[in-house]
Fold this protein.
Amino acid sequence: MVVAASSWIDAAGQSSPPLHPAADVQALELARQAIAFRSVKGSGNQTIKVAELFRDALVGGGFSSADISITPVDDTAYMVARWRGSDPSLKPLVISGHLDVVEAKAADWQRDPFTAVVENGYLYGRGASDMKFDAALAIAAIVELKAQGFVPRRDIVIEFSGDEETDMKTSAIIAERFSNAELVVNIDGGGGTFDEQTGRPLYFTWQGAEKTYADFELTVTNPGGHSSQPRADSAINQLSRALLKIAAYRFTPELNDISRTYFVKAAQYEKPEIAAAMKAFAANPADAKAIETLAADPSHVGQIGTTCVTTMISGGHAQNALPQRASANVNCRIFPGHKPADIVAELARVIGDPEVHIKDVTEGSVANDASPMRPDFVAAVEGAMAVAYPGVPVFPSMASGASDSMWFRYHHVPSYGASPVFIKSSDDFSHGLNERISIANISPGITYYLALLRALAK
Ligand SMILES: [Zn+2]
């Protein structure tokens, strides 16, 4: 099905003549086709088909197939396309995304997750919001930009990893290969918020930092014995005391440029009590009242500092034996700028029991710092938003989850989550059931990319 671009109502509720109708139509078609491929880790993984779909769209738009590579890795694949700039001495601009999606069990969905459906202004399907629609918008915008005759000064590299949702092996490979990049625009991060009531664009945030993911295994061992002859010491009790100390502990709250700006600018969209706490915390990260308020709010506690929480526990080996071993997994989300080893040392101090052994068992994650608020990027993203959504506030944010930006920041390449897609909070079903995205995003999303790429690749 092809939706006539001219019939679209934009996100501001106004019907306006399409600025780039071919790109708008292509974006929706690519998104629909991409959703139909089951690009999920495991047997039957069709990630390579998504890569081929996007490659073919670029070749159809006049790009040389010699500049596009698809590299199989295990059961997946990643794609790298290079649009050669006029000045080879400049470092490339990298557009980063991913081709894979999280598993979806069709029986639990109202519609088949791997059949794209457009209904009531929404595109439904696994990957609609994370992130096949985003990828389709970017590909269509690049094809449009080339058709407009634009020639970038620096190379534009568009790369899509193939296992961002699972192992991130391809993500690490790509970031290593482009560790010389000028900067990265990660189209799987950032984004706008639609007002719940009116559906109008409320604000847009670009993501300039994310917390570092870490898993620490805590273990206590004990000689054990017969449960009819209890000992004073117990591996389970000893571990429990350590875990309760961690639960009661608060890492020193902290701020960086990105979170400070976020708290100041985003406060206006919150309830009065939270808003006051955000402003007070931005002014003074030692403000006790503000800390209490934000720490009690699950949507903000992760933004004011490192958090650690016990997520798994095991211990003992028989109902009638004293435990010889007890262990737990403590999952930490580390504030940008700290190394996992520093957090291990801090936890050890908090526990104060050298018999509790702490081991870093983190997989698929690396420590990373916040990206700087680079004036050229900030100007480009604000300028592009001003064209796509005039008057909508733009400010930075820090994510509590991890994305492919982590791998670039690990190589000290500034990386910014800057997807132009807006969503109502109540519509956010990424990784979940009945994932969907408003197709009102298409036309302004293309407009945004055209302006952003022109600004950053010049
Ligand atoms: Zn994603």
The first strand starts at residue 68 and ends at 73. Confidence is low (pLDDT under 50) at residues 1-10. The chain is about 30% helix and 20% strand. The two ends are 36 Å apart (CA to CA).
